[in-house]
Design goal:
single chain; 230 residues; mainly alpha; 9 helices; 87% helix
Amino acid sequence: MNSNKNNNISQLFKLISEKKTFLGLIFLNLLLQHYISYYVSDNINLNAIKDKDKDKNTNNYNAIIIACYILATLFILLLIFVPMSMVLKFIIFSLFSVVFGIIYVSLKHNFDPDFVYGTAIGTLIVFVFMVLYGLALTMSGIQVTNKMAFGIFYALVLLIIVGLVQYFIYNYLVITKLVLIVLASLFALYIVHTTNNILLRDYEGDFITASFDYYIDMSNFLRALKVDNN
């Protein structure tokens, strides 16, 4: 038994060693993209639009946010479904990070700055923990299969539907809190799945897609935490 464990550990370190450049590029790009989003969110004041003429410019403010959500969705679809060069992927990913930074502005102004900072730190801690957990699963020889990933996806869809139904029909705060807690847990599992995928799947050197997967996982987890504490 100890022999199998030692063998799994050595295989994991060998795998990490083989992919060290790839993994380094993933996390370097992930840091860069999060910095872009942070810089945009810290240097754009959307509330100034509303303060000039509240009746007129509130509509402009809402139009900007809606346009950003549409653009973000478009960029996600492009990155997932459209074959393109690494350079073009990087440019689109960077544009997505800018758009998400604007969306983040609309979210963080509803919260106390200390809460925003604490949530961001909490998300980072959970991210690191779930990445390590993903490494531990790989070391144990456990692979997160596509069936399991689809199961998580269907659970997310079901929870979103339940959340929408209860919001518009029942609107029970307790149910909303429970749904969002489970959503955050499922997004955390997606981080484990992404880690497992990166180590065991052949991305053919496409570190942009791998880092984008992590970016989406972290962003969804962060948003679930924010809404849950609103």
